[in-house]
Amino acid sequence: MVIAVKSIMEGEQSLKRFSSEVVLRDLKYRHAVSLLPRIILLHGTSDSSIPSNTSKSFADALRSAGVQVELVLYKGKTHTDLFLQDPLRGGKDELLEKVISVIHAGDEVALAKDAVAPPARRLLPEFVLQLARKMSPF
């Protein structure tokens, strides 16, 4: 993550302002870090904009700081697949299912309804989604 921040966020001089990992290690923020809730990181393994190893590194930094963290990697998914192409594709949506399962955790009625919910309908033809994936700058 540090490399990505260096290259995107105005270089080395801005690293301390923008890097979550650097902030986590700063002792003056230790109390604030101790108040963080459980964190779930969701990342596609084929993301070329922000490689998934940045989320792995951030998850490790969070764990080292004592934060409860879950890292979910979506094999073959790009930066935009999870929140753009997949929902437009319809059918099973892994990211949406994960988010809803977190929101509905502990609510047996809601989870039962989720289990029988019909799949989302396709909103765009596949060739349009593939074209969008190829043209996306992310």
From TrEMBL:
InterPro entries reported for this sequence: AB_hydrolase_fold (IPR029058), Peptidase_S9_cat (IPR001375)
Gene3D superfamilies: alpha/beta hydrolase
Residues in Peptidase S9 prolyl oligopeptidase catalytic domain copies: 27-79
Top-rank taxon: Eukaryota
GO molecular function annotations of the record: serine-type peptidase activity
Biological process per Gene Ontology, one example term: proteolysis
Biological source species: Iris pallida (Sweet iris)
Transmembrane segments: none
Name this protein carries in UniProt: Isoprenylcysteine alpha-carbonyl methylesterase ICMEL1
